[in-house]
Amino acid sequence: MHLNINLNRPIFILGNPRSGTSLLRLMLHSHSEISIPPESHFFLWLEDKYKHWSSDCLDEFIEDLFASTKFETWNIEREALRAFLIAEKVLSYGQLISLIYAFYIQQEGQETTTYWGDKNSLWIEKLEVIKTHYPNAFFIHIVRDGRDVACSYKSLNKKIFDSPYAPKLPNQVVDIAQVWKTNVEAVDLFLLEKVKPTNKITIRYEDLINTPTEMITKILDKLALHIEQDQLNYFLKDSQDIEPLAFLKWKEKLKQPLDIKNIGKFKHELTNTDIASFNFIAKTTLRKYNYL
């Protein structure tokens, strides 16, 4: 049994790293009808091997699943999940993944959940994979000023994290600019060409920070849901309910209220030369989102 979860219309949060994807995940996850677990990459990593699903592969899949980095943060009991999947008589890879999320939701006691979702910056590289398994998926693209993204990259690169999960990001502004431009343009093109208007929305990080009620409402309207106060008070949760503690070392701002000081940091943190370089490389994309 998987409650009232819509298995076939998952929510996928897309965005360049350090663009507010974790913040948006947390705000949406705080809704009583939405469950977006902490980031785990098993859907992406195991898809090529198991996309042509056969129930004969279940035990091998379970082994690979529990060996996947970050899946252990979901604290799922192996044999209970195996029994659940056997009882559900899985017929496809998409159904298999949906049911793993459904099992997580039941384990967490989220009985009112309607939508499951996934936040994973690696999906930028595998957008067609989502459409293959979930043709009716709902996509949220969050875009942040790439020059502020550069500040975040450079700040993280100055820190030392004793964690296998720590992000590995470029440190040179010219490299960051090219990556940001490429990622944003790739998602834009995919959404334009492959996704119907009812199944997508693009928002800016800056608008989420400045007008959170309006932005969250715009997203929820497309899901026929209403905003809840807990979504704006996400930072009041216990730390382990915000992100796995292993991730919070580089996501500590999720424990704080929205802060407009995170907007426009590049004006003080990047050199004029770096700003000019970024503007030159990503001029068209910056202009598209009214950053220039």
Uncertain runs are none
Strand order of the largest sheet: 2-3-1-4-5
Could you tell me the number of beta strands? 5
What structural class should be given to the helix and strand makeup?
A: alpha/beta
For the largest beta-sheet, the strand count, sense and barrel status come to: 5 strands, parallel
Question: Which descriptor suits the 3D outline?
Answer: globular
Please state roughly what percent of the residues sit in beta strands, choosing from under 5%, 5-15%, 15-25%, 25-35%, 35-45% or over 45%.
5-15%
Distance between the termini: 51 Å
Q: Care to describe what's here?
A:
The protein is an alpha/beta fold. The chain has a domain at 6-145 and 199-259: Rossmann fold (3-Layer(aba) Sandwich). The chain is built from 15 helices and 5 strands. The chain has helices spanning 21-29, 42-50, 58-66, 78-88, 93-107, 127-133, 146-157, 173-194, 205-210, 212-221, 229-232, 239-242, 266-269, 272-281, 283-288, and strands at residues 6-14, 34-35, 115-119, 138-143, 200-204. The chain has a 5-stranded parallel sheet, with helices on both faces. Helix 7 (146-157) packs across helix 8 (173-194). The model has no long low-confidence stretch (mean pLDDT 94).
